[in-house]
Write a structure and sequence with these properties.
single chain; alpha/beta; 38% helix; 193 residues
Length: 193
């Protein structure tokens, strides 16, 4: 499985880079999974919430196997991030199009609000960062206060570090428990689930 991680200005560093490292470490053990950092439009550099600058690998594919969306910036209306992308609507539209084409969608933290705006969370259980729980309830989303929720083609993780748990779960789902456990050991990360 090729996982594309969709970056935008103001995303939270760990929401994207944590899962990226998990997938890349798994990919070093098996050819069953790989990851790349992508943007919606061509760009040379993306700046994350805390200032990390990343040169993306390219733009999102028309039909990626999995597209993971990080969170960051939902609570700050004056800065780049999820709130701004939610209001612009381009990423939610792209997510809806990719989902309709068969792409599995995943999110970490408030990236789930971009999934919500795309319509894919309607009637599905989902997790998000605790600061967005009230927003989920107002939107009528079936909020689950869990580290992550796997609803088949839509996977959501709650807060920032839960992205490790989600990524390890995806590795286990795609590559097996032994690979996921080996990656967790290399990261010296104790799996929550």
């Amino acid at each position: 499985m090729d996982v594309e991680i969709l970056l935008f200005d103001g995303y939270d560093e760990l929401d994207a880079i944590g899962p990226y490292e998990v997938f890349r470490l798994a990919g070093a053990r098996t050819d069953s999974i790989d990851a790349s950092l992508v943007t919606l439009e061509p760009t040379d550099v993306i700046e994350a919430r805390s200032g990390l600058r990343v040169q993306p690998d390219g733009v999102v594919s028309e039909r990626p196997e999995m597209l993971l969306v990080p969170g960051g910036g939902w609570s700050d209306r004056d800065s780049p991030g999820v709130r701004r992308e939610y209001e612009r609507g381009e990423i939610p539209d792209a997510l809806a199009d990719r989902f309709d084409s068969g792409t599995t969608l995943a999110s970490v933290c408030t990236g789930s609000l971009l999934l919500a705006a795309s319509g894919v969370l309607e009637g599905r259980p989902a997790a998000t960062h605790h600061t967005a729980h009230d927003d989920f309830r107002e939107m009528g989303i079936d909020l689950r206060e869990e580290r992550f929720v796997d609803d088949g083609r839509v996977l959501t993780a709650s807060g920032i570090t839960s992205g490790f748990d989600l990524a390890l779960h995806i590795v286990e789902r795609e590559c097996g428990e032994a690979v996921a456990d080996a990656v967790a050991r290399e990261l010296e990360y104790e799996r929550a689930i």
